[in-house]
Amino acid sequence: MMNEKEKLYRKIPAVDRILMSPRIEKLLNVFTRAMVLKAIHEILDGLRKRIQSWNKPDEFRLDIESILIQVEERVNAMSRPSLKAVINATGIVIHTNLGRSNLADKVLQKLKKIGGGYSNLEYDLEQGERGSRYVHIEGILKELTSAEAAMVVNNNAAAVLVCLETLARGREVIVSRGQLVEIGGSFRVPDVMRRSGARMVEVGTTNKTHLTDYEGVICQETALLLKVHTSNFHIVGFAEEVPLPELAELGKRYGIPVMEDLGSGCLLDLKDYIGIREPTVQEALSQGADLVTFSGDKLLGGPQSGIILGRKDLVDAIKKNQLTRALRIDKLTLLALEETLRLYRDEDNAVKDIPTLKMICQPYRSLKQKAERLIRMTGSCRTLNYSVEAMDGNSKVGGGALPLLELQSRLICLVPGKLSSQFMESWLRTYDPPVITRIEKDKVVIDIRTVLEGELKILSNALRDLALL
Ligand SMILES: *Cc1c(COP(=O)(O)O)cnc(C)c1O
User: Fold this and answer.
1) What pLDDT score does 58 carry?
2) CATH number of the domain encompassing residue 372
3) What are the tens digits of pLDDT across the range 423-451?
4) Are residues 334 and 460 in the same domain?
């Protein structure tokens, strides 16, 4: 055995010999020497590892030709951008792993037009002097929500952090045990609280918290009453939270600000469209929250950002916090956010133009038509590899919004024939562009809700290619 392994190791060609081949010379005309060398080393290392763990007669291609082909493939793969467009066929509209919200066309046009060049980002054109980047967004946020003041940072996690740090560092924040949420693995209310330097005072139980629980622990040290939207889960059964108006009234009575982390931050009433609603930002403010924070890229449908609205004195204090410099919003984001918010001036247009809202509000019959179009485009190819079935199913909003809501959708399922569902799922995932699906009951499920009109052609081509394998 040992001997055979030795023999295999010796067969591996030397780096110098590989470098001298004409195929590699061609590569060196296009790519840097460092890249080509890295690819060679990776391929050779991979071969050595395979030999090391080799324990049964297995075919090893150690001839220089096959190694050269592998090197070429590796260099080509290395040169391709890492971030690429994918087709979201999961039906999850606000899919955090796939970049959450798509941006509206009007927003993209604006980015193209002025995002790349100089702008009045921090320049007051009337006074001819230094200005603030936040003025571009504050006006429209106040107009849409009737908030007294507004501020934006990098994301909602940053918004919560800077609010807590400004208002409660070294002091106490009261929060219900039923609202100590974790969002997407890295945002946990107790951890953010600790990082901000605020001391968390938990009240109530997992399922029930009463107003008297909050009132019972209020003291000199209390800086803030915090309410957190339990975005991605829902406690059912014997459960009770203190409604915001009551918490706000308690805060007023004791002169303590009340903050709500809304998470998703919906600006319009979704009830008319999908029969169920998230609490809106406007509501939270009118019900007496002194501060609200939410994400720009969840239900709002804009770029990644964190929005802070509320009482002017509190927002002014937050603006002065040095932390905002580290958490500050980038000019491209600011631009995309302003444009997205401008679309909300006309609600009918907002649900048509903002992709996140459009996908959520898509009526069933248009989903069904879209599914039929895809089947028609793919239809004519006969294959034993799989068969196609259309059926009704459910999609999710995602992004920690409306966790219980099942949006009725239309699914295209690939039923395994010669190809297994695992093979088809991973083949589609590595297609160019990648198509992200899921497997349910041994079928590959394409949820048509999140597939854009312009992607149907590509998707049907992918299905034809899969049929011809
Ligand atoms: C999503 C969410 C956050 C984190 O927001 P990011 O924009 O992802 O940083 C914080 N709090 C709640 C309640 C959320 O739903």
Assistant:
1) 61
2) 3.90.1150.180
3) 999 999 999 999 999 999 999 999 999 99
4) no
**Protein residue with its CA nearest to atom 3 in ligand 1:** 263
Amino acid at 117: G
Tell me, yes or no, whether 28 and 141 share the same domain.
no
CATH of the domain at 149: 3.40.640.10
Q: Residue 221 C-alpha to ligand 1 middle, in angstroms?
A: 27
Residue 1 pLDDT more than 80? no
Instruction: Using the 3D structure, point to which of 353, 380, 414 is the last residue of a domain.
Output: 353
Q: Is the pLDDT of residue 357 over 60?
A: yes
- Residue tagged 């996690």 (tokens): 157
Q: Is 397 exposed, middle or buried (0-12, 13-18, 19+ CB in 10 A)?
A: buried
The parent domain of residue 55 ranges over 4-79
Return the best residue to mutate from 96, 160, 187 for the ligand 1 pocket (most ligand atoms within 8 A of CB). Answer: 187
Q: To the nearest whole number, what is the mean pLDDT of the chain?
A: 93
Residue nearest atom 7 of ligand 1, based on CA coordinates: 156
Ligand 1 mutation pick, 261, 293, 297, 397, max ligand atoms within 8 A of CB: 261
263 C-alpha to ligand 1 centroid (Å)? 5
| Of 97 and 11, more confident | 97
Pocket (CB within 6 angstroms of ligand 1): 155-157, 160, 181, 183, 187, 228-229, 231, 261, 263-264, 295, 306, 400
DSSP string, 199-237: EEEEES-SSB--HHHHHHH--TTEEEEEEE--TT----S
Total tally of structural domains belonging to the chain: 3
* Residue with CA at minimum distance from ligand 1 atom 1: 263
Same domain for 398 and 335, yes or no, is: no
Q: What pLDDT band is residue 278 in, cutting at 50, 70 and 90? A: confident
Query: What is the four-CA torsion angle of 16, 20, 24, 29, rounded to 10 degrees?
Result: 110
Asked if 340 and 375 sit in the same domain, the reply is no
Q: Residue 279 corresponds to which tokens in the numbers above?
A: 């609490």
Tally the C-alpha atoms within 13 A of residue 388's C-alpha that lie toward its C-beta: 21
Q: Which of 353, 388, 419 is the last residue in one of the domains?
A: 353
The pLDDT-based confidence of 56 (bands split at 50, 70, 90) is low
pLDDT over 60 at 294, yes or no: yes
Q: What is the predicted pLDDT for the residue at 137?
A: 96
Cα(152) to centroid(ligand 1), Å = 14
